[in-house]
Design goal:
By secondary structure, this protein is of the alpha/beta class. The chain is built from eleven helices and 16 strands. GO terms for molecular function: diaminopimelate decarboxylase activity; pyridoxal phosphate binding.
Length: 384
């Protein structure tokens, strides 16, 4: 919820902008760190969710590692001060340039997604006279029961090594002098709210760990990825239940002496800490549709246009007076530039302030310059 002081402050600022509640972010990070500590679990923050400098500063300070999916993210993590020994690098299409960059930084681990990638990393590490530490990202064919565009752990997805290619991975590892096998890695999707899904994942992790051990490999790392969701419909329920989440893995993962369990959380840590603040440009009332036209659009928040994602929308300038149903749209020259259809809101007027909630994950990072839009700004609840 926004206080009257917040709304008064917003009224004097140029819109649109992302507003970050850094106190909420800190509380969320604390809750996750405390819950993980109970089980000695290791958390890496997924930079793809949000790489705002103020956000990264707080994540780094809590002691989490960094989960990166590009050379740019590896660079950003190192520049922010993350320990390279806590940086993992995933991604189905790592370029030679990106791999070399990560090798030069002596990162903790490459999460490798194909047999060919094993061969490439081995070759590039050899040219540098280095040993690259790797984990095999396995596609476990576990249904995450989430939106089809953000599932990653099924046979039909491009991510990870499928089970039928694992024997070839083993053969390649045994002849690769510049690779050190650390363990196995999984990530089955994003915005997962049914924790039972993770029980199924644990079963598969246990099976694959045994499979590698039977072939003479020491599985030091069990990296189960992330994907824990947030409640977009009730943003006031701000902090996910990390205790219940980690407890699932404590109960169902078969962790042996000396093994470490690693997580790669993104949305659950930052999703609720930011809102997109926008101002009404025009009201267009018609016979079939009423439109609120905002100065923010899909160039500032892509998720609704990309996969029809829901975000709670609030008129901050009006009370509980007469309500109307509006399509809440932006100024971009695309019909998909819509944040919500038939959204019940107080009767709205030019100049009203709107908040689009739960925009801390995959919001600012996906902003674009389409239509030569100005770069989106950030405003913070405290000095960043």
């Amino acid at each position: 919820m926004f206080s009257n002081k917040d709304i008064s402050r917003f009224a004097n600022l140029e819109t649109p902008f992302y507003y970050y509640d850094l106190n909420l972010l800190q509380n969320t990070l604390n809750a996750c760190a405390n819950a993980a500590k109970l089980y000695n679990f290791h958390v890496h923050y997924a930079l793809k969710a949000n790489f705002n400098p103020a956000v990264l500063k707080k994540v780094k300070a809590i002691g989490f590692g960094a989960d990166c999916v590009s050379g740019g993210e590896v660079n950003r993590a190192i520049e922010t001060g993350f320990n390279p020994k806590q940086v993992v690098f995933a991604g189905v299409g790592k370029s030679d340039k990106e791999i070399n960059l990560a090798l030069d930084q002596d990162i903790f681990c490459f999460n490798v997604e194909s047999v060919q990638e094993l061969e490439v990393i081995n070759e590039l590490a050899g040219k540098k006279g280095k040993i690259a530490k790797i984990a095999i990202r396995i596609n476990p064919n576990v249904d995450a029961h989430t939106h089809h565009n953000i599932t990653t752990g099924l046979d039909e997805n491009k991510f990870g090594v499928n089970s039928w290619d694992l024997p070839k991975c083993v053969e390649t590892l045994k002849v690769s002098e510049h690779l050190e096998f650390l363990g196995i890695h999984f990530h089955i999707g994003s915005q997962i709210t049914n924790l039972d899904v993770y029980k199924n994942l644990c079963v598969r992790v246990n099976e694959f760990a045994i499979w590698f051990e039977e072939r003479g490999f020491n599985v030091k790392i069990l990296n189960v990825g992330g994907g824990l969701g947030i409640d977009y419909h009730n943003p006031e329920q701000q902090i996910p239940d990390f205790d219940a989440y980690f407890k699932i893995f404590s109960e169902f993962l078969e962790v042996k002496a000396g093994q470490e369990v690693h997580f790669e959380l993104g949305r659950a840590l930052v999703g609720q800490c930011a809102s997109l603040i926008s101002r009404v440009l025009y009201i267009k009332n018609g016979k079939k549709k009423n439109f609120v036209v905002l100065d923010a659009g899909m160039t500032e928040l892509m998720r609704p246009a990309l996969y029809q994602a829901y975000h709670k929308i609030e008129n901050l300038s009006r009370g509980n007076q007469t309500t109307l149903k509006y399509d809440i749209v932006g100024p971009i020259c695309e019909s998909t530039d819509c944040f919500g259809k038939e959204v019940e809101q107080p009767e709205s007027f030019r100049g009203d302030l709107y908040a689009i909630r739960s925009a801390g994950a995959y919001g600012e990072v996906m902003a674009s310059k389409y239509n030569l839009r100005d770069e989106i700004r950030s405003v913070y609840s405290e000095e960043a």
